[in-house]
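Minutes, project check-in

Agenda point 3 was the complex the collaborators sent over. CS summarized: two entities, 648 residues total, and the question is how they sit relative to each other. Sequences were read into the notes so everyone works from the same version.
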Amino acid sequence: MEEMKDIILQYVIEEYLEDDDEEITYDTPLISGGFVDSFSMVSLKVFLETKFKISLPDDKATPEAFDSVNNIVNLVKEFID
Amino acid sequence: MSNIGSYEKRIKNFDWSISEKELDYKDGNTINIAWYCSDRICQMGKADKLALIYEGFGGVEKEYTFNDIRLAGNTIGAFLRNLGVIQEDRVCLFMDRIPELYLSFLGVLKIGAIVQPLFSAFGEESLHVRLENAQTRVIITQRKHLSKVRKILDKLPSLEHIIIVDHNESKPLQKNEVSFNLEETTPVEDFEIFPTKANSPSVLHYTSGTTGQPKGVRHVHYSLISQYLTTKWILDLQDKDIYWCTADPGWVTGTSYGIIGPWSLGITQCVLNSGFSAEAWYKFIEKHRITVWYSAPTAIRSLMKAGDEIVGKFDLSCLRHLASVGEPLNAEAVVWSEKVFNNQFLDTYWQTETGSIMITNFPGMKIKPGSMGKAFPGIETTLLDPKTFEPFNKPGKIGLIAFKPGWPAMMTTYWNNNEKFEEKFKNGWYLSGDRSSIDKNGYFWFTGRDDDVINTGGHLVSPFEVESALLEHEAVSESAVVAKPDEVNMEVVKAFITLKPGYEPDDELELKIMNFIRKKLSPLAMPQDIEYMDSLPKTRSGKIMRRILHAKEWGEEIGDVSTLEDE
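CS then shared the predicted structure for the full assembly.
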C-alpha cells in the first residue's frame, strides 16, 4: 500500500510537474489544482493499468477519482485482485 | 432589457459606426486597445471599480481596480521600453492564468508591441515553432515554465529577453533572463502610450491547419470595434455584471472576450486559475455572484457528467446569462442548462481568424437548441457550393460557411505567410473551413469541418503536427492521426502507427509515446488512443489515406478507394 502510494506520487512528480520547486503530497488536488489536466488523465490511466496490471473502466476514471494520490490508490485497490 | 434589444431592428439599421461612436473613435484617430481597456475606463469615473477578481491555487486571492490595471499596464510597459522593446516587436506571454498574464497584455499593447499569447501547457516543440515563426524578441513567463524556454533558447536567435515574473533565488538567472516582480516595482503613474492606429498590429494568435506549421493570425487595434460591440450585444454585459470567461488567454476567446471585450466595457471580471472540478466551479460562481458566464461545450458536458445533484448544493441564482464557444454546443447541453441553471447556454460561433463572434444566438431570440444561431448584424454570411464556391440559398443544403470580408476584427494576414492568407478567400468570400446548412428561418446548423483539423475541447490540433512529432519517436515508423469521437471533448486525437523493426506493440510503449507527444507538443495533442497497425492505408503513389482511418473511427462510409494501394 505504501509502496503503491509512493510509486504513483513519484510518477506524477516526474511526469507532470514542470517546476522543480513545486511540492505535492498524497492529498494534493492533482486535477482541480491544475497539476494534471483532463487530457493528461488518459496517460495517467494507462500508467496505472500498465503498472498495476488492471483495467480501469472509463466511467470510474473521473476527475474526482484522480484528484489526489490517495484517491487514485483507493481506485486502484478496487481493481486489484 | 438586453443590450441588443430587437435583433431584427439591429439588422436593418446596422453600421459599425455604432461601436465607433460609443468608443469616441473617428477614422484616423489613435486607437490603442490597452488604453480603451484601462485609462479610458478610469477617465469615465470608474477608476475604483473592480476590474479583476483573481483566485489561484492554494486559496490565493487578489483584486485589481481599473486604476490598478491602468498602473500595472504602465509599469509593465515602462519595464519593456527600458529593455529596448519597441512597437511591433513580438512579446510572447507564456504564463498560467495569473494576474501578470492579463496585466502584461495591457503593458505590451501600451508600447505598441504585438502580444503573442501562448498556452502555457505547450511543450518545447510547440513553443519553439511559434516563437521561431514570429521571431519573438521577448517572452514573459513564470519560473515553472522556464525549463521549456531554456531548452530551446539556443535555437532562437531573435529571443533577446526572458522576463520571469516570479523569480526567486532558488534558480539563478541564466542567459538573457531578467526578473520582474510587479508587486515590488514602483507603479508608473504617467506613461506615454504608443499612438497605434486602426491598422497597427495588436495580437498574434497561433492556430493549426491540416498541413504545414501553425499559422500566426495577425490582428490589429481596430478589432476592438467588433470585440466591444459583440461583447455588449451578445454577452449582454451591463455595468453591474460580474463576468467569468473560462477560456485561457493562450487562445483567442481568452483575449477577445476574456480581456478586451469586458474591460473595454468597464466590466468586473473573475479569473479562476486552477484545474477543472464541478464543485470548485460552482463554488466560484456562488462566491463571487457571477452573473454572466462564457464557457465551452467541453466544460458544460463535464458539468453534466458530474450530475444535477451537485448543482443543488450551491446558490447559483446570480447567473442571468450564459454563452458557449469553441465547438458546436449539442442540443442536450442547452436543454440541461435551462433545467439546472434556469438559463440556456447560447452557442456562439467564430474563429481565431475572425477575431470576434460571427454567428450566434442572441439574448431574447427564439433559441433552437443545437443551432449556431444567426449572423451578427453587419456580418454578411453565406454558404458556398464546395465545388464552385458560388453562394446558394437553399434551406437544408450543406455548404461552406463564408463571410464577406470587412468586419473590424478580421485578421489582416498570417504572419510571414501571406500566401496561406490569400488561399482563405474565394470569389470575394472568406472561407471559414467549416460546413453547415441554413434552415428556412435563417438559423445555421453546423455539420463539420472542411478539412482534417481536430477540434478537441474547443482547441484545434493539426494532424500533421502530431504525425511529424510521432515520427521523431524512436519506435515509430509511420503515423496517421485522425479525430476520434468523444463524449466530452467532441473529438480527441487518435494515432495509427506502424513500428520499426525490433519494437513490440504493447501498453508500455503506448504510454511512452503518449508522454513523448504530451511533453513535445501539448496535452491536447497527445493521442488519447494509439492503434498499432502492420501497415497504413496508402494510395498507389504512397500517400497515407487518412480519410479511410477517419471513416473507420466515425462509422462512416469509406467512399472511393480506387486509388488505394493493394486494392
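Noted in discussion: Chain A touches chain B at residues 15, 18-22, 29-40, 42-43, 46-47, 49-50, 62-64, 67 (CB under 8 Å).
Follow-up: revisit at the next meeting once the mutant set is ready.
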